[in-house]
Specification:
Blueprint: H1 5-24, H2 32-65, H3 73-100, H4 103-107, H5 118-121, H6 124-140, H7 152-171, H8 179-203
Helix pairs in contact: 1-2, 1-7, 2-3, 2-8, 6-7, 7-8
């Protein structure tokens, strides 16, 4: 219905959490059908992102327009109208993508999954250590780029890696000491990186 842009944002976050859960337990759920749903979820996240970026851009320009000189207001208004047109073009393929997805088919996969081998594959805590260690490495590889204000691509990659780490921490929180504090720290850091990314989107 597109009645609230925050609904779209929440759906995009939910799609990322779904994919994060898949990554945490990759190998438990396998087969062509599951891979198909993984690709579909990735596609949904992507088209949601295209619309969300335009929403972020529109909000930023609207805020900037409130502080602009009077002689520039017509220009801001025209720009916002132009962004609204582009967003409408981006929203149409999003609706088509969502209408083509069959969540019932995905959910029907779970009752038929043989979970008995699960306990023999790994203990939950062992899997947590394996997954989180890898995600921490992915996150910290961008650390040195924080000293370079112009390294916008690296900052964006670090933000994505931070999201994946945070979602995994939430899943494995019962195995990590002070997980709530770590999750909050990551969330605060991501918000700073998110502000940078929003500016990069607007500049682009």
């Amino acid at each position: 219905a597109d009645t609230d842009i925050e609904n779209l944002h929440d759906m995009r976050v939910a799609s990322r959490r779904l994919r994060a859960a898949w990554r945490c337990f990759d190998g438990v759920f396998s087969g062509k059908q599951i891979r198909k749903f993984q690709r579909e979820a990735s596609c949904i996240t992507s088209v949601l992102g295209e619309v969300r970026d335009l929403d972020v851009l529109g909000k930023a320009i609207f805020r900037a327009g409130r502080h602009a000189p009077v002689e520039l207001l017509d220009g801001f208004e025209s720009l916002l109208e132009y962004i609204a047109v582009i967003r409408q073009h981006a929203f149409e393929p999003l609706c088509l993508t969502l209408s083509a997805w069959e969540p019932a088919e995905f959910l029907d996969q779970f009752p038929g999954i043989d979970t008995r081998p699960f306990a023999h594959l790994f203990e939950f805590a062992d899997q947590a250590q394996l997954v989180l260690t890898s995600l921490v490495d992915d996150f910290l590889q961008w650390h040195n780029d924080l000293e370079n204000p112009a390294a916008s691509l690296a900052h964006h990659q670090m933000r994505i890696a931070g999201k994946r780490l945070r979602y995994a921490l939430e899943i494995f929180s019962c195995t990590v000491e002070e997980s709530e504090s770590l999750i909050q720290t990551l969330q605060d850091f991501q918000e700073h990186l998110g502000d940078l990314h929003d500016d990069d989107v607007m500049l682009a």
